[in-house]
């Protein structure tokens, strides 16, 4: 079983946002990785049952944060260090008058990050949970006296009932890079993108809204609305790659699709003292 309940972890390792009505979100401080988002008790995120929780390896599933680099990185680990650093709770889960819950986590440079990437920075990750909705906002502050450059992405693993019946809407007409086949940009011609093999595609200049619909029992239809994340990666390892990964369920590829909003094609340059805000909002449409 995937560990997606608060009781699966020491209390000091997690942040639990709970509306008390079946809408909840669970974050692990390792990487500030969101590992569960439930709407009316239905889990919407995929987490591998073989994910390792050793506070070292990246968590396999949920929403790992790629920063300051998406993809292979000559200066450090793939997808950067944010997903494997311990984040700090700046504001613990706090309920407002409507029952909505807010929490804020932060990550700042330290000796280890500066040894890889010699910049001072602060990341502020704010989650606001309401009924059938979760807003995740990442603000990247350059706290250094020099400019810095980065790419970033929220690597969301959506849980689906049946990958064969899953569609991603909103990508038609976009150019994408197919990282599996390489080569030139391809134009997406489908209204509804389906995944039937190892997919690793970077869609460029996507609209702000994409919708993931999964198969029945339970049916899910999740709208992802992004801000300042112009690119969308669609990834599924499929059978062979799933087996090759030690921390991925062999059959898990049938129950997930990664739809990852990011700023990855063109890096951001932040001058000293400036900041970049980006966000994704999940809304359950059912
Ligand atoms: O195994 P990870 O480092 O978590 O990366 C998992 C995947 O992340 C993204 O979707 C990339 O586009 C893929 O190329 C990569 O395989």
Automatic annotation (TrEMBL):
Pfam families: Aldose_epim. Substrate binds at residues 60, 78, 83. This is glucose-6-phosphate 1-epimerase. It catalyses: alpha-D-glucose 6-phosphate = beta-D-glucose 6-phosphate; alpha-D-galactose = beta-D-galactose. Gene3D superfamilies: 2.70.98.10. It comes from the Eukaryota. The active site is at residues 155, 260. Pathway: Carbohydrate metabolism; galactose metabolism. GO terms for cellular component: cytoplasm. Keywords: Isomerase. Its EC number is 5.1.3.15.
């Amino acid at each position: 079983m995937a560990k997606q309940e608060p009781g699966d972890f020491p209390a000091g390792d997690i942040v639990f946002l709970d509306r008390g009505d079946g809408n909840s979100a669970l974050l692990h401080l390792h990487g500030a990785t969101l590992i569960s988002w439930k709407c009316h008790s239905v889990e919407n995120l995929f987490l591998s049952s073989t994910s390792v929780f050793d506070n070292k390896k990246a968590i396999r599933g949920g929403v790992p944060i790629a920063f300051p680099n998406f993809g292979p990185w000559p200066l450090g680990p793939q997808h950067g260090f944010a997903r494997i650093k311990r984040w700090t709770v700046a504001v613990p889960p706090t309920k407002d008058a409507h029952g909505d819950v807010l929490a804020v986590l932060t990550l700042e440079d330290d000796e280890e990050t500066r040894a890889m990437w010699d910049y001072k920075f602060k990341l502020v990750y704010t989650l606001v949970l309401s009924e059938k909705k979760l807003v995740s906002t990442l603000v990247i502050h350059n706290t250094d006296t020099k400019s810095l450059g980065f790419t970033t992405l929220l690597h969301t693993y959506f849980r689906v009932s049946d990958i064969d019946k899953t569609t991603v809407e909103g990508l038609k007409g976009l150019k994408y890079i197919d990282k599996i086949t390489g080569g030139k940009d391809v134009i997406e011609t489908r209204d509804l993108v389906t995944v039937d093999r190892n997919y690793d595609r970077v869609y460029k200049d996507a609209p702000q809204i994409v919708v993931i619909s999964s198969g029945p029992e339970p049916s899910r239809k999740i709208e992802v609305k992004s801000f300042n994340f112009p690119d969308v990666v669609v990834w599924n390892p499929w059978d062979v790659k799933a087996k090759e990964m030690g921390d991925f369920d062999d059959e898990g590829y049938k129950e997930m699709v990664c739809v990852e909003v990011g700023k990855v094609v063109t890096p951001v340059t932040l001058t000293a003292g400036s900041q970049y805000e980006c966000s994704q909002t999940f809304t359950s449409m059912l």
